Amino acid sequence: MSSIMLRPDLKTAGGEVNDVLVNGKYVGSVSIIYREGDRMFGAVQLEKHSLGKMRKVPYLSLSNSMSWEWPKH
Question: Model pTM?
Answer without folding.
Answer: 0.62
